[in-house]
Amino acid sequence: MPQTYLDGAVAYPAEFAQKYREKGYWIGQNLSEFLHEATEKYADNIAIYCAEQKITYRQFNSAVDCCVASLYQRGLRSGDKAVVQLPNHHAFYIIFFALIRLGALPIMSLPAHRFSEVNSFFQQTEANAYFCADFGTQKFDYRALARQCQQSNPSLKQVFVLGETAEFDSISALYTLEIQDNPVQPIVSQASTADQVAFLQLSGGSTGIPKLISRTHDDYLYSVRESAKICELNQYSKLLMVLPAAHNFSMSSAGALGIFYSGGAVVLGTDPSPETSFTLIRKHQVTDACLVPALVRPWMDKAACDQDDILSSLHCLQVGGARLADVVANRLIDEFNVNLQQVFGMAEGLVNYTRFGMHKDQIIHTQGLKISEDDEILVLDEDDQPVAQGEVGHLLTRGPYTIRGYYKAEEHNARSFTPDGFYRTGDLVRILEDGCIVVEGRSKEQINRGGEKIATEEVEQALITHPQVQLVSLVAMPDDVLGEKSCAFVSWQAQQDDPSEIRRGLNLRQYLKDYGLAHYKIPDRVEFIQHFPYTAFGKIDKKTLVKQL
Ligand code: OOB
């Protein structure tokens, strides 16, 4: 029976915790102290550029204090939980640290999530607060989503909105960025201790409900400090943040937290297009950027078209979240003279980076080296036996910043973790003689749509609720831009509507939208078939379906 923290998160076994402390990985600092330390060291450095605003570390920390006092006044307390679903705006970081300083647990939702996902976070955690934008950048009314969530979750008592608040509380009223002559008396930090859960990240998932990942201050900050070193961040670094800020890559690999650790600045952008990004890179003399592979081509095309050497002006371009094609990596280095870093990570923990000094072949053809010598890596065959050196197998991992189980998911944990605590990543990899890891594929039921992960089962379960759908199977189709897109194969009940309409799949897509699935999970293609192929085992034969594409 694994040890648990209060409230359903699986703890590290005591002997491992002791080892990670003795080795200096876990230093007993919580995220609130982390921000204090950065503020002491780098008070007048700019921490965040957001539109026309520049926020120093001193302003940042005092805004967090102010926000803690305001949230306390409005009734939030240590032990509360809050779903945070904000766009790339300074409010995201201020709310995140304020909740932590208050001892409340942020749940890191992404702006793309809709009712189905957000509601499941409330259901799983009984969170009592929700922080969202009015419309965000997606022209979607999050306040309507808040009302829907309130109806189905009596636990949700308070909603805070960035922008037009309607009947809800205002996020902007929670803090000011001005340094006050008589600052609000900060309430004494109630942040949880470093060995406790700091916040809940989200799993890309391979099952029906998006799983929650509890990360402790100790484990997360270890990965942040090491990542900042590997990425060679310093107080002059400026990291362009156009991926969703709450994603684990954006947060910690080395991400915004790596920047705050180093005294540098995060440059926030709300749209990853090359037009917007290049303008920000030029304006702020950005040194670092993190991207998913799907964005690399449009960036290269724009740079080539403008005959602009903007990409080589960066100290580092990080690419991760999905496999970067070798030819694209090669082009980045050869034609654009980019200092490329591949990043292969997961919200559950383990992160690998190619290192700056590596040979070009290693940077192009591998996903680099793990962070820690105590990241334990197994590459196993179907029978859980180690494969020969250099052969492809299932990646399992355990280490000082990899979780030991999902939040409140005992049954699922029995499948996703071995009894001795290794996480089954669902990735197929090979380890080269030099230790570099190469991602060769995937065994998990997941589609990686340009870095956005789709659990096939989640979409299948949503589709099957349609009254006329009989059977359904979601498969990946290769895509030049996104790497993969999704195709739903569907069979229908006998008495059908107009089959041509069904074939076009229009009503099904609308159905899934109304169901409240995030847009990126809605199948790119819908195929109507009468008879599904089956394996000898009696399961739907997805391999045969893929061949029909
Ligand atoms: C990152 O985190 P998640 O949790 O959204 O997704 C993790 C999964 C991995 O298990 C793997 O299947 C895939 O995304 N992945 C890659 C990859 N990076 C992630 N597959 C191939 N090549 C890569 N470079 O995606 C994430 C978290 C932290 C840092 C970077 C990415």
Automatic annotation (TrEMBL):
Residues 36-407 form the AMP-dependent synthetase/ligase domain. It is an enzyme of class 2 (transferase). Keywords: Ligase, Nucleotidyltransferase, Transferase. InterPro entries: AMP-bd_C (IPR025110), AMP-bd_C_sf (IPR045851), AMP-binding_CS (IPR020845), AMP-dep_synth/lig_dom (IPR000873), ATP-dep_AMP-bd_enzyme (IPR050237). One of its GO terms (molecular function) is acid-thiol ligase activity. Pfam families: AMP-binding, AMP-binding_C. This is (2,3-dihydroxybenzoyl)adenylate synthase. Residues 458-539 form the AMP-binding enzyme C-terminal domain. Pathway: Siderophore biosynthesis. Its EC number is 2.7.7.58.
